[in-house]
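Checklist before submission:
- one chain only
- standard amino acids only
- sequence pasted in full

Submission:
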Amino acid sequence: MMSSLGKAVLLPMLLLSTAIHAHAQTKQLTVPCMQKDLALLWDAVQEVHPAYGLYTPADSLLEVYDQTIRSINHPLSVSEFIAATYPLISALKCGHTQLKYPLQYTPAAADRLPRLPFQVLVQQGRAWVTTHQLKEVSTGEELLSINSIPVKEIIKHGGDLYAADGNNQTFKELFLSEYDGFEDACNKYYHWQPPYIITLQSKQGVVRTISVDTLPITAPAQEPLPPFDNYKDWHTSANTDYLPLRFFKDSATAWLEVHTYQYDDTLIYNKAFREIRENKVRNLIIDLRHNTGGDIRIAAHLLAYLASGPFQMVGDLWARVPDPGKTNFDPYFDSLKTSSFKESFQPTGIKKNNRYPVEFHAGFRNLLQPINLEEANHFNGNLIVLIDGATFSSGAHTAAAIRQYCNNATFIGRETDGGSEGCSGGTIQCLTLPNSKVVVEFPLLRVVSVLRHPVYGHGVMPDITVTYTAAQVVTQEDRDLQEALNLLANKAHTWH
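Returned file contents:
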């Protein structure tokens, strides 16, 4: 579940809705131009990218690259070129490496693809109908196939249209479910046109096959379900602006939503934790769901109110080249982002274990060193952390730091998208491919988490995993929050 702000924050990340500007681009890209762009991208990945070889062996990545080059054997539109390239990007297994449309790009008529008349909830290789515009379909029915292709295969190919950290699947499930990724698979991979032949299984186990056509996006949803009231027993503070702080009716429990990190958050934290102390809160729910990151220094400020003792925010920082601010690919990188890198980080140029340690610039808070607690309004009670498949980047670093440094923390929800080992990040460069003008978001550093026992290739894991039904998604019932309150009620006699 997520707030409207959470959606607004995540949307700019998405593959098929980024960087749409004023000038039309209708020409198709030639095969030589696309292959030259791919060769440049591959060279940059091999030489500079910090995730190269971490989760997918180099020889396996080379196989995917070769397959991608072979598949580019006829002219493609920019949109088709992006879709054809994404399996290579996805195989790198870095959630900070994504493809964006050229800065001056408007979809051509051929790019205006049909909309499915239903949406789905994707979990564990299966899909259930959520909202829909079809009288002959019910929310909660399982979708078994489209045009004779099993749903499991559609999900697999749809997952290749977006990159995630390591072997994580929770963000890909979220992308397929909430941001039309399932529809993108039908359009971008299979190139289907309506009508669609879909096979469904009812809640009673009855299997049937029907033909459905697309409907206008303005068509009303069938079978509207009343929204669930998640806030009826909560009082919202008037002092924390866009980071809601709520107090449960028993007044001993508070719930603070923590969105992407930005400068003004520090002022809100000061107000929030003072109010938490004044209300004598014993149980605090920190909501990191759909926290897609931001300034990790702000995350460190949050940890200062929560950690059980002095803490680090970053475990290690390194690059694959002596100076990521000066490489063979500078002509294709964004010079402003290069300047930002130089202002924030100081390469040591010293090779150690095939890597080059990087330090924080003197003007940047040193997150590799111990950070002291906020004494005045420090929270010392029981902590519950809500996480999901869109807890990413410095949001996931926050989850890892809480896991490592907060003695009374319990995690509820789903595996974070950000890796428990850390992520490739620091400065996210923009590599512009010279022929197609497609922009590749390209991290320069490996930012290692502080978690001493991470799970290789996976995010921070919940102590209590929560799954949703299709009906709960449609009504926006917050099962994670309910599980947190149930835990507090059941453990009240043993927690202090």
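Reviewer check: The chain has a mean pLDDT of 92.
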